[in-house]
Design brief:
Blueprint: H1 6-27, H2 34-47, E1 51-55, H3 58-68, E2 75-80, H4 86-93, E3 97-101, H5 112-121, E4 126-130, H6 142-152, E5 155-159, E6 167-168, E7 171-172, E8 179-183, E9 197-201, H7 204-214, H8 236-267, E10 287-290, H9 294-303, H10 333-341, E11 342-345, H11 353-364
Parallel strand pairs: 2-3, 2-4, 4-5, 5-8
Antiparallel strand pairs: 1-9, 6-7, 8-9, 10-11
Helix pairs in contact: 1-8, 2-8, 3-4, 3-7, 5-6, 8-11
The structure holds pyridoxal-5'-phosphate.
Amino acid sequence: MQFIDLKTQYARIKEPLQKRFDDILTNTRFIMGSEILEVEEALAKLSGARHCITCANGTIAIEMCLRALNIGPGDAVITPTFSFIAAAEAIRLVGAEPVFCDIKEDSFNIDIESLADAITKNSHKNIKAIIPVGLFGQPADMNEVNQLAIKHGLTVIEDAAQCFGSNYQTKKSGNLSTLATTSFFPAKPLGCYGDGGAVFCNDDQLATILKSIRVHGQGENQYDNVRIGVNGRFDTLQAAVILEKLKIFADELELRNQAAAYYSEKLAGKYTVPTIQSDRSSVWAQYCLLSEDRAGSMAKLKTTGLPSAIYYPKALHLQEAYADLGYPKNSFPIAESICEKIFAIPMHPYLTKEDQDKICTVLLS
Ligand SMILES: *Cc1c(COP(=O)(O)O)cnc(C)c1O
């Protein structure tokens, strides 16, 4: 059994995708071919945001947002300590300082009290932005994050790499704050066949700046450089993959939801199963359980040949690369305790009930 089954999905889109690949290979528009604009329009429409600017990956998407906001040396940006490293890394890459905060025990997303606390405690720093993350598929408490941001004059960048496609009240992830980013890494709910990402915004001026940053800070013409940028373009071939995957995305999200509901029905009681708040949905980037005996649970699965994984084993404030920030152990007790208990079981749209039964039987034995 695979942790994520991309082969079944490929069989579903193979024919039209090969036709698209053939076209691109023949016309050789590998860089910024017409598929880029086509996929940007489709993604903007899906999110409800006015602009989608595709880019090379989800990490550079965050870096591009920070650069577009002129965030750099002397500035600080707040992000939760329990996440993938990308946001913290992008903050560092532009020369700013990451300030961490804790998460909520039930959703694993940013804790508003801890966020407020981080703003107060670091008021001597030049805090410019907040990067909440929609971890494992469910958006964070974006209204509360936005309210705090407005109160303190900060900009919000939603890291939607895992939750793109989800709903939050009447809106969609990607359209919940000034800026949002996603990733098309193959294992994400909406992934391509290599690296890719995108930025979303409603502001025309920010969109223009982001497009310039994406191509070396380009100005009016190709060899006119008006700002420091990156080489951050999305590949035409990868845009074609997303265009085909978008056709089956809604159906796949429905299948992910069914698989998640089936797991939760079977495993609730014995394990702490994920909770999705009633005003939002999840795209189930991961299905994570909490267990007091994680090692035992994962070992049982392994001996039966069933995969599992830990997202994430170590909080970001305790990572060696960020040791100079000086956060001691126990700085963020919820995140640190979740790191000890959490593990993920296979989640993708093509999980069969038989496979899910196998996993659940082992976990309940
Ligand atoms: C995957 C991921 C990213 C980064 O995406 P890449 O395309 O791999 O650079 C950023 N944030 C989160 C939460 C992610 O899961």
